Structure prediction request, 207 residues.
Amino acid sequence: MPVETILAFTLASVLLAFAPGPDNLFVLTQSALKGVKAGIFVTFGLATGLIVHTAAVVLGLAALIQVSVVAFTVLKLVGAAYLLYLAWGAFRAKPEIAGEGEDTGLTGFQYYRRGIIMNVTNPKVSIFFLAFLPQFVDPAVGSLTMQMLTLAFVFFLVTIVVFSLFALLSGFLGSRLARSEKAQNIMNKIAAFVFAGLAAKLLVSKA
Prediction:
């Protein structure tokens, strides 16, 4: 692929990663509540979910989701239910004073899995890839599949770098607030409303 095409795609990906959305909000809330480590694991989980969506686009599954009301509805209901589950957990969570604000509950793998579920159950991501990737591919250059896989890999790397920065900054601020039970209670309630809001947004979304 031409270098200028990859650079243009990289710039677009960075701008999209910084734009407020469900995934980066998820990283911010988890990092603020549970520390940088949790945010990083969630970031890698979200990035892994992108691999699933890339495969769906390459195999044409995203097109099926776009035209099948049932498939789209099932996916978004599962995603919304999971977000509401997280919202309820955050709302009921009790303050945990842990020196630097790092999580003392879930394991890294559990946060990684949480990121995967969050990303995979959002059908809009596959549809986004279906609309976004073809704009940067050219049949004259070579295999469309290889071009899309290359671009998806670039998007994967951009997501990890940008979201990790979010995790570091949010985790740093959260670690300072984590020493106060009152601040933790407020952060938990804010996280609950953010998760519930994301669930509501997903429920009203259309293919």
